[in-house]
Amino acid sequence: MNRDHQRRFRPKLFLIVALACVGAGAIASPNASAAAEKLRVGINLTTIETLPIYLAADGRDAIELTGGALPLLTEGKVDAVTNAETQAILRSTANPEIRIILTVADYSYRIVARRSAGIRTAADLRGKKIATQLNSSAHFSIVKTLRSAGLSEKDVTVVGMLPPDMPAALARGDVDAVSIWEPAAERSMQTLGSDAVIIQGAAYRERFNLNTTAAAAADPLRRAALVELLRSLIRTSQEVRDHPERAQPLIAGKLNVPVQIVSTTWNLFGFPASLPDDLLDSMVEQEPWMAEKQSRAARPREAIAALIDASLLREAQAPR
Is the pLDDT of residue 29 over 70? Predict the structure, then answer.
């Protein structure tokens, strides 16, 4: 990607560095001051979904990117972090102050299976071994696919496995299918070649969200910085949608994968920079499944709704 193209992907992100006071008698804490100087954002370093955040942070010293997921946020090591909606459900039982503030990307899962294992349709998954990352959006995608065929999770053997290990395990016959995000899913397909079969179940899209905490959203300095980040993500996401030919080489370089893997899977992704209308419904559907995994009672819809904070996005979308 040439320098001119890179400049087009560098939206101006004006991070508020200091506020002397917010109204009469405001008190600035040391932590708030640090957050004002540098917004700490945890990201998944291995997924295509992270693309708009890379673009928003490109060349901006006010944003510090670090690899990680929701535990970084709950441990206070970052001000915001990316993760699928399943993880907000999983982690919020112990940390109810987690807040989803934006869907950065969405992804349509497919199960990659071995034709030689006798698999042609979702119904053929009965009795098979399916690798996934446990208690993840990819795991829930298995559940949705099985339900569409009149099966349940008990009808298969779900094997916990790291994404990079899945293509080889599938090729060796250690498992019969995998459900995982990109690029591991596409690599699994390529490894199997003509033996690969794609199982598409009931409609489910992973929502790769930007999360923060209620405390960060209530802090004037950090809130202002988060709103500016959202404004930038709205712009960079539009660039990604309008110019995939520029975006694809960039994320391929970040992931150290061939551009062909990114371009081949591109139509499985969306970069909405919004809070989808069906996000809550999807999370409410997932809650009983996750509750069973955690051996707890399922929470009511109101408790799940409290995990989504649309107020920062409304500020970011408002005219200045």
Answer: no
